[in-house]
Design brief:
14 helices
Amino acid sequence: MNLLVVSSISRYAGIEVGGAETSLQLIAEKFAQLGEHVVFLTHRRSFIPGCTRQHITPMLLTQQPNPMDESNRKPAGGMEKSGNGIDVYFLTCFRWPYLKGWLFPEQGEQFRTYQRRRWIAHIVKSRNIDLIHTYDTINDTADVLKAREIYHLKIKVVKRVAGLFWAHQLNLGMVSREKVEWVFNSVDAVNFLTARQRDLVYQTAQDHNIHLHPKKEMILDIGINLDLFHYQALERKDHVFKIVCVTRFAAYQKRPELLIEALQRIGNPNIVVEFVGIGDSLEYCRHLTQKLNLNDRVTFHGYVAQKELIKIVSASDLFALPTKYEGMPKAMLEAMALKIPCLVSDIVPMNAYVQDGQNGFLAQNFPEHWARKIEEIYLNRHRLPEIVQKGWEFVSQNYDANQNILKYRQQFQELLACSLPKIV
């Protein structure tokens, strides 16, 4: 199988990313470890337009390559056999030269779109690509589909849908209803993470008067790399109860302010919160923390490297994720793998994964509910070993990337063979 993974942003380009982009990278690397031919296309910030290539060897598959290291880059025209590694293509489109794009901006965007599609077609033809795997971003998938149509590419296209970002794009006017409907119904398969998450996507589409009829559904998630996230007992010298929230501060989806407002309702000064992540609502949360006089109980780490993230989560007593909606939050799975108890919002589809008081905890999206639940967990800390064990079992049995990549390979092979059974 010759696989091309398309992700407009990625860690390969030195950009902070979320769970969707991390999952695509993990899928690519696990396929490479299986011996499949894998190519990865991402965008790169540069003043020099063009497309360069970096070969990622198997020993680097769990590390973040240095995007500034030009010694490993080669012009995209000079191809080499990938072996069990990954050829990562970094695309920088030539930008409209007039007044920083202010003159004829529509023509400028059309020119960038033309370049993206040409490079997709070039990579597909030169690397004999069989299948392209994309993700939520509607415009990226549309470019792939249009490239297939314009350049007569004989490829299959699988779109991963991890959340409702496409609905956010729709609400902002970034895409049209017609385009969303066309993309969903034109790809050869839509990869939903769970059945409940699929139902949420269909309901949201219906609310927007969008009719989804995918050719094929794949209900499957890659999960996490359990080789990296494994429990390690840490000796704690303090007596505080640390709550960690790993999140993207995106106001349209996440609710980190709930945790801050809940903390203000908790009188126990030994209960503290640490945030990891960045985003557009970060400054608002900082301001709210200061306004509520919680600076001594709330810490903002910003974006941290994966190794540091594991240390922060492992040293916590509770993982918390207040949110409006989710697909399958990777940060929650990682916390469960590290045997940290998880408290998440009581929403669909999260309440299908987490059973309150069994393998984790649920709270309704009101500050008083979160405060009450946190205090309840704190007072019943003796039960946490039993909870975290069940959480770890949930992850290890369902979200081990080494096992799930075999299911992906089977489904991709069936798709390439034109065998299109709906799997559940």
